[in-house]
Design a protein that fits this description.
two-stranded antiparallel ribbon, 6 strands, Alpha-Beta Plaits, alpha+beta
Length: about 110
């Protein structure tokens, strides 16, 4: 099992959610987060200068079977990309065990 975590633009969240549902990933958690990125220059919009160093994002966390990792990552890559700086990051880590509290199932049965 792997945990796939992604930090994406809030504006791309619905596209990412739909893409995950299309590949059968129907359960995941998400949070609104704010972070600091690599780009430190400001932007001007309608004559008003504003900083882009602190940007609002969505943090998505999903645990999937090893067979679904590549599909999950590719779905997020395709649906979250705008081609602009600040599209986000994806992290994949190993999960040693998972348990469903209600039924006491473990392993892949607990996450499906």
């Amino acid at each position: 099992m792997k945990k796939v975590e992604a930090i994406i633009r809030k504006s791309q969240f619905e596209d990412v959610k739909d893409a995950l549902h299309q590949i059968g990933v129907n359960f995941f958690s998400y949070w609104n987060v704010t972070g600091v990125g690599n780009e430190h220059k400001g932007h001007v919009y309608r004559g008003i200068s504003y900083s882009t160093s602190s940007i609002e994002r969505r943090f998505i966390s999903v645990v999937v079977s090893d067979e679904l990792v590549d599909k999950t990552v590719n779905s997020i890559l395709e649906s979250a990309s705008t081609g602009e700086v600040g599209d986000g990051k994806i992290f994949v880590s190993t999960i040693e065990e998972a348990y469903r509290i209600r039924t006491k199932e473990n392993g892949n049965k607990a996450i499906s």
